[in-house]
Amino acid sequence: MKAGIAHFPTSYSISPAELGPALEARGYESIWVAEHSHIPTSRKTPTPSGGPLQQRYYDTLDPFVFLSALATHTDTLILGTGICLVIQRDPIHTAKSCASLDQLSGGRFHFGVGGGWNEDEMNDHGTELEGRFKLLRERVGAIKAMWTEDEPSYSGDLVNLPPMTINPKPLQSPHPPIHVGGSYPGGARRAVAWGNGWIPIPGRGEGTIAEQIAAMHQMAEDAGRDPNEIEVSIYFAPADPEKLTEYAEAGVTRVAFDLASVDGPEALASLDAGIAAMESAGLR
User: Fold this and answer.
1) How far apart, in whole angstroms, are the C-alpha atoms of residue 256 and residue 249?
2) DSSP secondary-structure letter at 151?
3) Does position 199 have pLDDT exceeding 90, yes or no?
4) Mean pLDDT across the stretch 219-247?
5) Which residues contact 200 (CB under 8 A, 6 or more apart)?
6) Are 109 and 102 in contact (CB under 8 A)?
């Protein structure tokens, strides 16, 4: 099972110049960077877990700018969005940002996507809560077309793009992996239908993570897909050896430990704790 981190980068977090080498030196495989364009002051949408919204949600940097900076300070680290709020983004600009990052990083970009939860935030982008998953699927479909076709076009119910020329194409072939966020069962269905990976949310949906993964594998087989081709990533995994062992036995591909939006020794100690937990679980 691979180890990564999930992170909200901010102006007061550890810098890309320090973070990148620290991750690679410790053997981390990946980083998954969150996205929020803004937080409306109305705050009419409650947080999924309840309680006040953490300050890092207000302060997070643009994921593509941050990952581009991180690419210049790393050689092997997978650079992922975790997650990109595609429903709040223009698909043409997003396709170009992804492909540019994949080119400049030497083919290390992974596209984590999701439908989001903050209704008032998505409303400011002209997106409604109802129907957002269909919009997500169509925008991702349009992005895949722009990545893989010489003269891409897309025709859907919500997204329609005429034939165009758009470059660069991603370095990875046929395209960067697409990891679909969302709790079971909806997230699993979407991952099976059009993703390369699934990002389940621990503690949400029916059953344990092991039961959910088994059910997702059955969905894949029923759809004619090889379940082993769908990676499973757990964001904000606890640095708990017992829980990590449980995830590994369930077939989780990677865990991403929470790196708080902090700098200096506190950030480095957090990175050490994740690797120490993996070692205690016999996964390193």
Assistant:
1) 16
2) S
3) yes
4) 97
5) 182, 183, 184, 187, 188, 209, 212, 213, 232, 234
6) yes
